[in-house]
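Supplementary material to the annual report.
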Amino acid sequence: MTMLGTGPEEAVEESNEAFYRAFRDRNLGAMEAIWASELPVACIHPGVEPLVGREAVLESWRGILQQEAAPRVVCSHVAVHVLGEVAFVTCLEGAAGQPPSLAATNVFGWEGGAWRLVHHQAGPLAVRQHGAVDEPDEPPILN
Amino acid sequence: MTMLGTGPEEAVEESNEAFYRAFRDRNLGAMEAIWASELPVACIHPGVEPLVGREAVLESWRGILQQEAAPRVVCSHVAVHVLGEVAFVTCLEGAAGQPPSLAATNVFGWEGGAWRLVHHQAGPLAVRQHGAVDEPDEPPILN
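Predicted assembly:
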């Protein structure tokens, strides 16, 4: 998952892309491999309360990957933030060919020689008046 | 911010509560102190794209803390996940006295002898048929 000669940012970005590839390909084996097996794990899917623990998180992903109608999600606007042996990614998500519809956080931990996913949260982007996500924002009401 | 004799989970939970206290009290100085000043910082407010960097993040919080109509947000269902010198919290948020309306991630890094906030994301909980957030979920359509 990491490559010789690349810095941690590139390796984290590669793990982040591996997560979205497993999601798009509905590849449960790859999805199980990307999530950490020793570090603590949690996940917040859009609209629902947090799931805590590898078992609950992977059960949710099994359900998602079995949905044939689920869109093929692509990731854009990736920013990688490295904090030693933990890193977090902020990015946008959307169905392939469509404007991004979600903002996401992916937290990775260095485990067994690879950057493995320990947490994912995705939440909806508000629909803008002009349909663009890059416009300056009004200050949000809530945090 | 940390106390002698407590483990990292308790210290992280205390920093998490300090963040919500600064938010509720509209205390900009406390909010500036809770966010890391050396580690990389980002923030995803509900509905909008990620903000990256301490300056952009604190500017957004200055705007939020100036809104007199902003609700007093309380935090519940806190789960702390420690990964060495980084920790992340999953929790629910809501206006005081109301059911939770948001799910949130708060990532903390150990900086200068304290657990300081490096990332926050909050996203809306879906309104449930029976109004309770603790009911079992239907599998979400998107991740």
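Chain A has three helices and six strands.
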